[in-house]
Amino acid sequence: MISLLIDTSNRPLSIAINKDGYCLAEINTTVKKTHSATLMVYINELFEMTGYKRGDIDRIIVARGPGSYTGVRIGVTVAKTLAHALSIDLYSVSSLAVIAASTGREGVMAPMFDGRRGNVYTAVYRLDGKSFEEVMDAGYMALDTVLEHLEKYEGGIVLSDAQEKFSGNLDIFTHAIPRISAVEKFESIIRHEDVHQMVPEYLKISEAEKNWMERTQS
User: Fold this and answer.
1) Where does the record place the Gcp-like domain (predicted)?
2) In degrees rounded to 5, what are phi and psi of residue 141?
3) pLDDT computed for residue 205 by the predictor
4) Are 79 and 194 in contact (CB under 8 A)?
5) How does pLDDT run across 1-34, given as a tens digit for each residue?
C-alpha cells in the first residue's frame, strides 16, 4: 500500500509518501510560505526522491481541518483533484489528530490552534501504543474551558506550535508540529471519503460566511 499524505491546515506544511504505513520520504516545513505555491512542487520532489510515479499511489490521506480556512482548502482541493484524476481512494484525518500522532508520546494530550478572542480549536486524545481515543470531541471553545477539562487527567499536556501566538493565556505547553507520515500507525483515525462529497472540517464558520448568513436570513 503506497499512500500520499498531505497536511496544509496551518502555517506548517507536512507531506509524505508511506509504504505499508512506514515513511519513505517526507517534507515538513514551518516557514511562512504560501502553500498554494509550494505544495505541488514539494509533492513532485517526493516522487523524485522515492522514484514513484503518480500512478503508483494507492490512496491519498489529507488533513481535513480544523485550521486556516485557506490552508485547509488548499490541501483538500489538491487531494480531491489527485484522487479523482488517479481514480484512487481518498481518506481524511483531523488536523488535531495529526498533531497528537506526530509526537510519539503516550498519555492524554490536547493539540490546539489559536481561534482568536481567547478561543481555540482543540480536542483531547488518549494515546496508548496503537490505541487512539478521543476523550473530548473536537470543537471551537474557550481556552480556559479546555484547560479546566484537561486537569481531570493526570499528566495531561497541551500541544502547540511554539511559533503560534495565542489570544488566550496559554503559558505552559509542549511544542509540537504536524508530521502527517505518522497517522497510519492509527488506522482508526483515518476516515474514508467520497471524493465528490468531502468538505473541509472547519468547526467554525468564517466571518464572511457568518455575515452572508445574517444578510440572507434578515
Assistant:
1) 31-160
2) -155, 170
3) 53
4) no
5) 999 999 999 999 999 999 999 999 999 999 878 8
Q: Are residues 60 and 123 in the same domain?
A: no
Domain count, the chain: 2
110/62 same-domain check: no
What does the alpha-carbon distance between residue 5 and residue 159 come to, in Å, rounded to a whole number?
A: 21
Angle ∠(171,181,14) on CA atoms, nearest 5: 60
Q: Is residue 80 part of a domain?
A: yes
Per-residue pLDDT at 212 exceeds 80: no
Tracing cell 480536542 back to the chain, one arrives at 123
Looking at this protein, which amino acid is placed at residue 33? K
Instruction: Decide if 197 contacts 191 (C-beta within 8 A).
Output: no
138's enclosing H/E stretch is strand 131-142
**Do 39 and 86 sit in the same domain of this protein?**
yes
Does 108 map to a domain? yes
Domain that holds residue 196: 2-95+179-208
For the chain, list the strands marked E by DSSP.
2-7, 13-19, 22-29, 59-63, 89-93, 107-116, 119-128, 131-142, 157-160, 174-175, 191-193
How far is it between the farthest Cα atoms of the chain? 57
- The CATH number covering residue 71 comes to 3.30.420.40
- What does the angle CA 42 – CA 7 – CA 9 come to, to the nearest 5 degrees? 120
Is the omega angle on the peptide bond into residue 66 within 30 degrees of 0, that is, cis?
A: yes
CB 25 within 8 Å of CB 51: no
